[in-house]
Amino acid sequence: MGAYSIFKGFKVTFKNYFKKSVTLHYPIVKKPMTDRFRGMVDLKPPDCVICYQCIKICPTAALDLGHKVLEDNKTKNITKFTFNAELCCFCGLCEEICPTDAIFLNKMYEVSYFDHKDLLNIDLMSDHKYKNVDGGTS
Amino acid sequence: MIVILLKGVSVLGFIAFSAMFLIWLERKVSAKIQNRMGPMMTGFHGSLQPVADTIKLLLKEDIVPQGVDFITWWLAPFFVTVPVVMAFLVIPFSSKWIALDLNVGVLYICSVTSICVLGIFMAGWGSNNKYSLLGGMRSAAQIISYEVPLLLSVLLVVMQSGTMSMQGIVHAQEHCWFIFRPHLALAFIIYTIAATAECNRVPFDIPEAESELVAGYHTEYSGMKFAMFFVAEYTNMFIISAIATTLFFGGWQGPFLPGLVWFLLKSYGFVFFLMWMRWTLPRLRMDQMMSFAWKFLTPIALLNLLISGWFMVR
Questions:
Q1: Nearest to B23 by CA among B60, B59, B48
Q2: Does B29 touch chain A (CB under 8 A)?
Q3: Residue A103: which domain range?
Q4: Is B37–A14 a contact, with Cβ atoms under 8 angstroms apart?
């Protein structure tokens, strides 16, 4: 019985030798996150209607929005829309409350920064605020 | 003189290359068996990982713990490494590639590889560490116990071939490898188990069991001295595979390919089997290991020797 179990063990490890690995060769191959994964706060500026709902609902006051009204007294333009990643708790309430889905949480999970100051005032209006947003291959 | 020097240099070069290759192979084989990838970043599929490890070990601080028996502690790595290098003297890589074809080649190899146990015991005692001492004593007991069935199985090969010369044993297998004869197939199984224990490989690695003894007898070694133990272990693994190839698998003999290629294929195939065994089987307890050697393996080896010997002289 003991000898049989040894051969059975050998068979198991031999089969495993030829199976594909379950680990990924990170960072060359990256696994994309699931649909409901909550990464960093991101913005589609054209869709924002400057309703301030996200500012009001954010429990940690991580978002900061400023706007100006143009000479026609109707059109509003965003002057500043910054995000403090240190304060954010990634609850997703801003994404839930946004009426136009302008603000959302992207799929980025590589959220380390070399300098602490870079975390504090991330400019959401910029096109180049984040790298590796979709978590795919860089 | 120059020929002797060239042979010596080529053996040392082969040992260095072989040890580095085996370190890489061990990591890749263990990774594949465990469904992961192993080293991938340093060189193509991690092929330069052993080079990186060597450089790391060379640059590490050589710490001398307080209270060590200095001469014993300092000499131990040499007592482990030098006999393993000496054993390469009689390994027949091909019909022409043998450093020295001694007519007592088998006796020479068995004697020389037995010196390693001294080095392990010295490392255990000289380290001034109870875990090292336990590891050293366990290793000494293990190696001495498994020497008996090892030598009994090798003796059967010597009886069958009628010579102790390594080349002579290879030539005796011209018509049929010894592994295909039933009594020698049993001797091969005994040899494999005993040689695995001689090499302190799983399932017989209680002397250096990481989870039980920190690192056993080489706990207190760092830098180049640890590298010497490491290289000695992997080189010893190649030696026992080379001996198995020579004694049971026809050595360098084989069709089409050059003898050297066949020898290396067979030896590294056996090394792969040893690695496969390491990542499959659990570790034996010390009492299980000792009782297996004395109560099972030695009687079987003696019985095999007795019955085969009787058939040979009948």
A1: B48
A2: yes
A3: 34-123
A4: no
Contact B35 A22 (CB under 8 A): yes
A29 located within any domain: no
pLDDT at B156: 95
pTM (2 decimals)? 0.85
A21 assigned to some structural domain? no
User: Angle, nearest 10°, between helix axes B223-248 and B49-59?
Assistant: 140
For residues B131 and B91, the answer to whether their CB atoms sit within 8 Å is no
Whether B38 contacts B31, CB under 8 Å: yes
End-to-end CA distance of chain B: 48
The domain segmentation of chain B, as residue ranges, is 65-313
ipTM above 0.90, yes or no: no
Which own/partner contact pairs does B180-185 have at CB distance under 8 Å and 24+ positions apart? B183/B156, B183/B304, B183/B307, B183/B308, B183/B311, B184/B156, B184/B157, B184/B160, B184/B248, B184/B308
**Residues A32-49 pLDDT 10s:** 889 999 999 999 999 999
Q: CB–CB of B276 and A22 under 8 A?
A: no
Q: Do residues B15 and A1 touch, judged by C-beta distance below 8 A?
A: no
For residue A79, the surrounding DSSP H or E stretch is strand A76-83
Q: How many angstroms separate the CA atoms of B310 and B305, rounded?
A: 8
Task: Tell me the chain B residues in contact with residue A14 when contact means C-beta distances shorter than 8 Å.
Answer: 276
> What is d(CA B133, CA B213) in angstroms, rounded to the nearest whole number?
10
Residue the block writes with tokens 């400023």:
A66
Please report, for residues A118, A138, B126, B217, the alpha-carbon distance to residue A41 in angstroms, rounded to integers and kept in the order given.
15, 20, 60, 54
Q: Count how many domains chain A has.
A: 1
Give the CATH number for residue A84. 3.30.70.3270
Q: What six digits make up the tokens of B92?
A: 């027949």
What CA–CA distance (Å, rounded) separates A119 from A62? 11
Gap between the Cα atoms of B94 and A66, Å rounded:
82
Backbone angles phi, psi at B216, to 5 degrees: 70, -135
Q: Which of B82-91, B220-229, B297-306 has the lowest mean pLDDT?
A: B220-229
Interhelix angle B116-126/B70-87, nearest 10 degrees: 160
Is A44 part of any domain? yes
